[in-house]
Amino acid sequence: MSDEEQVDSARDRVVVEPERLRSAIEDAARDHGWRAAADVFQRHWDLYATRVPRVMLEALKGLPGEVFVERPSMLIAADYLQQVASGQGAGRFHDGARDTYGGAREPRELLDSLIALTGRAAGARAEGGLDTARLRSAEARRTLERADESARGRAREALPHLMLQWGRCREAADADGAIVEYEQSHHLGTITGQTEVAGRAAASLAWLLAERGRLSDAREWLARARATGRVSPRHGAVLHLTDALIAADQLDDELAERALARIDDNGIGEYWAALLWVRAMIARGPIAPLMIRHDFVGETERRARKLYDEGANRRYLVRAADAIEREIEPCEPPIPAASPEAPSPTDIVRQASALCRSGSFAAARGLARTALAASPPVRDEAAAQLILAASEFALGGSDAARSAFCRAHALIAHEGLLRSYGTIGAADLRALAELSGLRIPALATVADAAEAARPGPAESANMAALTRRERELLVLIAEGRQFAQIAESLFISLNTVKTLTRSLYRKLGVHSRGEAAALARTL
Hints:
Elements: H1 3-12, H2 21-32, H3 34-43, H4 45-48, H5 53-60, H6 65-70, H7 73-85, H8 96-101, H9 110-126, H10 130-146, H11 149-155, H12 159-172, H13 178-191, H14 195-211, H15 215-227, H16 233-249, H17 253-261, H18 272-281, H19 288-301, H20 311-327, H21 345-358, H22 361-373, H23 378-394, H24 398-415, H25 426-436, H26 443-453, H27 457-465, H28 468-478, H29 483-490, H30 494-508, H31 513-522
Helix pairs in contact: 2-3, 2-5, 5-7, 9-10, 9-12, 10-12, 12-13, 12-14, 13-14, 14-15, 14-16, 15-16, 16-17, 16-18, 18-19, 18-20, 19-20, 19-28, 20-21, 21-22, 21-23, 22-23, 23-24, 24-25, 28-30, 28-31, 29-30
């Protein structure tokens, strides 16, 4: 059957309203047998599993017993629905029974094998076991490719959901193949009429491309995600996050803020570290970066270290830390140390950037070359070329500086990564633009943004007088925390909070919490 015929067939399928789903399944079982009943249930999974899981649990009761005998995956589906319905979240799901008992029973159909492997992969990913998640998703892909056409056909309705999970496992683990899995999930979801999963795959792919610096491709997938017409809170959050990243890259911080404001806190899920990074990108002034740092520490403290010790989350936190460090260098947030055996290109670029800012140009040049030799994503490549150009220029290598800067400019101009110019100082940027004879559209904007973020003389004097603990106190006051909450957050006594507060008020020239909070929001 051609793709066009499959689309027509998908349109001809009847979609049952939630309140009639169980009776429709029972009718299908009575008139056409257990396979037809299972098909009705499976066909509505995309529409209702995450939105109204209790409806799907009720519908599950209408399936004949043969379904659970012939398709053990339905038991896994029941466990999944129970977890989602109880509020634990889809990300926590995995095939616990098979993991616990070692898979003593072989699944009878391809679909059962794929769901069992995918459940293990998703569960491992949610718990920080990225290697296991990657291996299980790869095993599921190989199992599908070895299957015959008949078995693939019977599993076709579930494949978009499974491929989406395989892509997410590969993305989280920084493994190859995530783009292909998302593309195939979107394609199969579209031709089988499963618009929600198609939209989620497109949204995830848009984010993945944007964070790598491929903004032009990301925009295309954003358009495809929105073209599905069905936006759930989960893939809606990723859409808004991608919008915010693209706007931040193009120095439109106001647009980025609006996109971030549309994110449902309950929908951000596993992209929590990515959200911190985008927020850190646009945080300016003495207070906003401190607030991001406060959230950074809070988010990492309430999660197991293995959930951000490697993979994509680690990369996002490294980038967030770099952005914060540029604004408040003494208050760098803690992140796991890079692996000495195999530091990522993002780690190397961050180290090179810090060395360049401190004047260690020879060391920065060496690290920038190391990062470029690793064939990094476009975003890291552009940053490494800028650091290389600035370092070469400082060391007197004008020709090498010009060559590196021209390569960086070509990458940035092609994708619109204008904020990447901020990897080096405004003075270096101007000098390199003049040396290369290139016109940098963002040059004035970058310089103006830096100037606008710089506090005025009175504000600067006030902030300079504050101790680090007083700055942290000001952030918490601006968030509306009560003294008891502040004491708990800072691990100090209530009396110490009051003493710090009096000192803070005196240095800022204010007389109340409200005045201090109002002043903090202007800094």
